[in-house]
Amino acid sequence: MKIIKSNEIKNDILKNIKYCNKKKSLLIISQNNDLAVNQYKNAIIRRCNEFNIDYIDKEFSKEDNHLDIINYCNNLKNIDGFIVLQPLLESTDLDYLRENIPFNDLDGFKYDSLGKIMSKKFENLPQTVKSIIKFINYMNLDLEGKDIIIANSTNIIGKPLAMYLNYKKASVTLFNSKTKNQKEKIKNCDIFISAIGKANYYNKDYFRNGQIIIDAGVSFVDGNMYGDIDYEYIKDLDIKIVTCKNGVGSITTLSLLESLLYS
């Protein structure tokens, strides 16, 4: 098992951020006391402070809904970009937010961003997807004709990533919770990308030598962070893998700020 690390990718993004003289302001929207959300938000805030980027951290209460969020946004000025940290509460209508948030979309959240992705315009891809693509480019992978499986079918990761990979002439399969014969299908693919958020879910039975694995899943057990892949049980395989800890998640926050500054 060869682990593909993020150091060079991270350094390139850091250079882009440090050498940008633009002054921008970020709005961070959240509404759920979720451990993964809080970790991501804290990472964003820490990097904003590091690079002197203005931000508003707005956490809405359980009494608030989509109308309160839009009313708040409409009364703000000088916001250059926003990110909605999901999940929000069930009482908050995401469709309404996607149609009405007035600011520049940095994470593929609004309907116009999703529409552009369908039209092969990938500037507003979600940040996790952008980070996965950065690793694909870093590994200089030829995607044409490759069989790629994505274990995620959401608007946040699976669907926009599939559109991009299909544009690159790969054959893409999206998995959901009802997909049958998963072990056989994963073992036969060239590239496997996982983002299901289940700790150590995929073991050696799913993989074979020669594959490329990108683990974009994050979950917490007893306060410890895990990816979707059980690395211990695949360490003897001849594979290349991007892990959750020094991989996609380690550059997603920087990618967000890079997108903000260069938008």
Automatic annotation (TrEMBL):
Q: Pathway, per UniProt?
A: One-carbon metabolism; tetrahydrofolate interconversion
Ranges where the Tetrahydrofolate dehydrogenase/cyclohydrolase catalytic domain occurs: 7-102
Highest taxon of the lineage: Bacteria
Any one of the GO BP annotations: L-histidine biosynthetic process
Q: Which GO terms describe its molecular function?
A: methenyltetrahydrofolate cyclohydrolase activity; methylenetetrahydrofolate dehydrogenase (NADP+) activity
Supply the alphabetized keyword list: Amino-acid biosynthesis, Histidine biosynthesis, Hydrolase, Methionine biosynthesis, Multifunctional enzyme, NADP, One-carbon metabolism, Oxidoreductase, Purine biosynthesis
One cellular component (GO) term of this entry: cytosol
Q: Which residues form the Tetrahydrofolate dehydrogenase/cyclohydrolase NAD(P)-binding domain?
A: 126-261
Q: What is its EC number?
A: 1.5.1.5, 3.5.4.9
Name of the protein described by the UniProt record: Tetrahydrofolate dehydrogenase/cyclohydrolase, NAD(P)-binding domain protein
